[in-house]
Design goal:
- The complex is a heterodimer of chains A (493) and B (317).
- Chain A is globular, with a radius of gyration of 25 Å.
- In chain A, helix 8 runs antiparallel to helix 10 (327-336), helix 9 (290-298) runs antiparallel to helix 11 (353-367) and helix 13 (421-431) runs antiparallel to helix 14.
- In chain A, 30% of the residues lie in helices and 23% in strands.
- Chain A starts with a helix and ends with a strand.
- The longest helix of chain A is centred in the N-terminal third of the chain and has 23 residues, at 2-24.
- Chain A has 493 residues and is α+β, with helices and mostly antiparallel strands.
- With 317 residues, chain B is mainly alpha-helical.
- Chain B has helices at 2-29, 34-39, 45-54, 61-73, 87-122, 127-141, 144-158, 174-208, 211-218, 223-260, 266-275, 279-307, 309-314.
- In chain B, helix 1 (2-29) packs antiparallel against helix 12, helix 10 packs antiparallel against helix 12 and helix 11 packs antiparallel against helix 12 (279-307).
- Chain B is globular.
- The termini of chain B are close together.
- Classes of the chains: A alpha+beta (493), B mainly alpha (317).
- The interface between A and B is large, with 56 and 59 residues.
């Protein structure tokens, strides 16, 4: 008995020593992420979890978005835009291969976009690329896109996960065996457990510092905390703010606080009374104490916003003062709108911590001005059906996480039902404008209209709060696009 | 005996068919559209509609039910909506974690629970008996996710002897896979071992008062020998029943433990599939669980009849 116990102890000690050695290995990284992607093809699904694993790691587009949100050359070395802004000619990088060894050339680019635009395309953002009317291969490394109208953000849209270049030989299997041109090749996916990527030797660009990266799927915050503390994973890109204190003063970890593209809003059904009344929406805006919401929901991480626009964007204008927190003004506006005693409404909350918590805070802030909210918790799938697809809601709370999604407000059929021809015309002009200064002017005007009309309650920009091993460098602090780019991550001593 | 087995088997098949119908129908009522889920909140209605057609969701429900059952009879569980992989393959991969986990937990609870129960019964009314029963009572009351967290804090975060969770595939490093299952199976086994100890003790205390024990003692056996040779075997009957039920409970209990230890098991698969409205996967996995549970019941019934001839005779007309 004693002997076996001893043997067991020795075995345990040995194996933990072995584990320790593996940890000292300086070229591998294990990253904890909350959500497992349903599939790994970013051109056939919108889930952020897909981009977290593959965007700019396994797959690349003609352009790529850098950590400041700017457009950089990707598989296209350079491009020219015709005078009328309708023809883009791309010079492709020479000597690029896909991870299965096939060569990348203009044929693959044409294939990728034909696939996005085809009749049975399941790309989540086909509409971004719909203005493309012609794709001409000039030579194997030169390709021209013809558009039927100017698109101001065409180069950015080409850098999205939806437009990464795939090969005709492998595209059909990308959901489970993704083959791209990126610095990391897909190795294996243990479903429910992890995805393993390995540096791709013949990569055309600067080689990655890491040789191997694993994404480990851990949905529970307490479990993730333990896994970080035990050294089982080396970091996570977005950790729950309520438990961040565990790592803030721990010298073995660093906490990276940055911005995201997630504008958290109190979505309002503008077609349904009383929310069709501007005065009511203004009253609600005056009733919101943003700082209190941020403090209570995310422990103070996040930036108040006055319009659905990311504060780190160069076009951003601070509009939080449009309808400042003022319960008295809110009551007065409600009385003017014909609701001196307030009214009752429902608030449907999806299953994310920021929504469930801020929902309760908003309910109490609204109660102070006479608006009684009934909180209804729903699952994501149910939220998508009830709120998003069927527009059966009064109010909801959700974060819109895509870059530059202000254009949704120009769609009168979008779920908040905002129908303003002036704004629609403005967005149309903006989309067709290429000149930077002019674009900025138009974007500011657009934000101002949305703030003035109080279409939704604009709450705060979600913060990105990463927790990483203190010896890791090169992680993106901000998240200007969905993804977790491994390119620059390295171990230091 | 054959007739008995046959009758039990027919009951088993009928249960499955009814279960299949209920599962299909209930999940069809659930609000939420898998296509919308996949494409997210900025997708155009056109894209969603195209995906629905691709996934075969535009077909009427009765037709989908028939083709689903027909497929399963031929071993084809269909393709997962969100993961785009065969359902059978996905489930099979997860069983490689959930089955060993349940079996380990089962073995631990038997190895720990039964001897403790016997010991407590032999020392009935003594301090040891009280100590064991108080511990067992606590074991039943502690939720296994909490116990799991505690184990992680001590053995993974504190001592760093074992991984805090995760799972290495068996074919990669069997020893690492095994290590990954130690803490979760302990967490799962604790309440089961406690229940077994209590049941074993009660059953043994019951038989110790029986005439045949006194006869055995009169034959010259010591109390220990009498209990061991004649008592324990008779006391095993109720324990067997509990064991059968426990296995079903264990397989279901893995859902929580798999989340605490982020193990890629069946429980977590079902949990995510429900939230993603991957209905075909949920249905397939649920059917497999029902088959496992009802088959265990069937086997328990048969084992029961084998141990106790009276049962088998009574149920034969």
């Amino acid at each position: 008995m004693n002997k076996t116990l001893k043997a067991f102890g020795v075995a345990l000690a040995l194996s933990s020593a072995l584990a320790g050695m593996a940890m000292a290995q300086p070229t591998e990284v294990r990253i904890g992420v909350a959500l497992e992607p349903p599939a790994l093809d970013p051109t056939a699904g919108a889930a952020e979890a897909i981009d977290i694993v593959v965007y700019q790691n396994v797959f690349e587009g003609l352009t790529r978005i850098d950590q400041n949100g700017a457009v950089q050359p990707g598989l296209a070395d350079s491009w020219t835009i015709s005078e009328d802004g309708l023809t883009y000619t791309f010079k492709l990088h020479d000597g690029v291969t896909f991870h299965d060894g096939t060569t990348f050339d203009a044929e693959d680019v044409k294939f990728t976009f034909d696939r996005i635009l085809s009749e049975d395309s399941v790309n989540a953002h086909r509409e971004f690329y719909e203005p493309i009317t012609g794709i001409t291969i000039i030579d194997p490394l030169t390709i021209a896109f013809t558009l039927d109208r100017q698109i101001g953000r065409f180069l950015f849209d080409l850098g999205r996960g939806d437009a990464v270049i795939v090969a005709p030989e492998s595209a059909d299997n990308n959901a489970n065996d993704p083959i791209g041109t990126g610095p990391f090749a897909f190795v294996q996916w243990d479903k429910g457990s992890r995805v393993v990527l390995e540096a791709y030797g013949p990569y055309w660009g600067a080689p990655a510092h890491l040789t191997k990266a694993s994404y480990v799927f851990i949905s529970d915050t307490a479990t993730l905390t333990n896994a970080l503390l035990a050294g089982d994973i080396d970091g996570t890109n977005n950790f729950a703010t309520e438990a961040l204190a565990v790592f803030e003063n721990n010298p073995q970890f660093k906490v990276l606080v940055g911005t995201t593209e997630g504008e958290t809003i109190l979505s309002t059904n503008n077609k349904r009374p009383p929310f069709d009344n501007l005065k009511v929406r203004q009253a609600m805006a005056h009733a919101l104490d943003r700082q209190a919401i941020i403090d209570g929901t995310t422990n103070g991480y996040g930036t108040p916003i006055g319009a659905p626009f990311a504060p780190h964007n160069p076009y951003y204008v601070d509009l939080t003062g449009t309808y400042p927190y003022d319960p008295e003004a809110a009551k007065a506006l409600l009385a003017e709108a014909g609701y001196p005693d307030g009214f009752s409404a429902t608030l449907k909350l999806p299953p994310v911590a920021y929504a469930r918590t801020s929902g309760q805070i908003i309910a109490s802030q609204f109660a102070a001005v006479g608006i009684k909210l009934e909180l209804i918790n729903v699952e994501w799938a149910q939220w998508l059906e009830d709120v998003y697809a069927n527009k059966d809601f009064d109010l909801s709370i959700v974060s819109h996480v895509e870059p530059f999604d202000i254009g949704n407000y120009a769609n009168p059929d979008y779920y908040f039902g905002y129908d303003n021809p002036e704004f629609q015309a403005l967005i149309k002009t903006l989309n067709g404008t290429v000149d930077e200064a002019k674009r900025k002017e138009l974007a500011i005007e657009a934000q101002t209209i949305l703030a003035r009309d109080a279409v939704n309650g604009y709450l705060f920009e979600l913060a990105q709060t990463g927790v990483w091993n203190a010896k890791l460098t090169g992680m993106w602090q901000n998240s200007p696009i969905e993804g977790l780019v491994l390119r620059d991550i390295a171990w230091t001593e | 005996m054959i007739l008995f087995t046959l009758r039990r088997f027919l009951g088993f098949a009928a249960t499955l068919l009814v279960a299949a119908l209920v599962i299909f129908w209930l999940l069809d009522l659930l609000p939420g559209d898998p296509a919308q889920f996949i494409l997210g909140i900025n997708a155009t209605p056109d894209s969603v509609a195209r995906l629905r057609v691709q996934m075969g969701l535009d077909v009427p429900a009765p037709e989908r039910f028939v083709s689903w059952v027909w497929g399963m009879l031929q071993g084809d569980f269909g393709m997962s909506y969100t993961q785009r992989a065969p359902v059978a393959e996905l489930i099979w991969a997860r069983l490689a974690v959930t089955l060993p986990l349940s079996i380990f937990a089962m073995v631990i609870s038997i190895v720990v629970g039964l001897p403790l129960g016997i010991l407590a019964a032999r020392r009935r009314g003594k301090l040891l008996d009280t100590a064991i029963m108080v511990t067992a009572q606590t074991g039943v009351a502690i939720p296994n996710f909490w116990f799991g967290m505690l184990l992680t804090l001590v053995f993974a975060v504190g001592l760093r002897w074992l991984p805090p969770g995760g799972f290495t595939p068996w074919n990669e490093d069997g020893w690492a896979s095994l290590r990954g299952l130690i803490l979760p199976s302990l967490a799962l086994a604790l309440p089961q071992a406690s229940i077994l100890a209590r049941v074993m003790r009660t059953a043994l205390v019951d038989v110790t008062g029986q005439d045949y024990i006194r006869t055995a003692r009169a034959k010259g056996l010591t109390m220990g020998e009498a209990v061991w040779r004649h008592g324990v075997r008779n006391a095993l009957l109720p324990v067997l029943t509990i064991l059968g039920l426990q296995f079903a409970y264990l397989v279901a209990g893995t859902i929580i433990v798999e989340n605490v230890f982020y193990l890629p098991g069946l429980g977590r698969l079902i949990y995510t599939a429900i939230s993603e409205r991957d209905l075909i996967l949920v249905r397939g996995a649920t059917i497999i669980l029902i088959v496992t549970v009802t088959a265990t019941m069937l086997l328990t019934d048969i084992a029961y009849a084998l141990v106790d001839p009276r049962l088998r005779e009574r149920s034969t007309p």
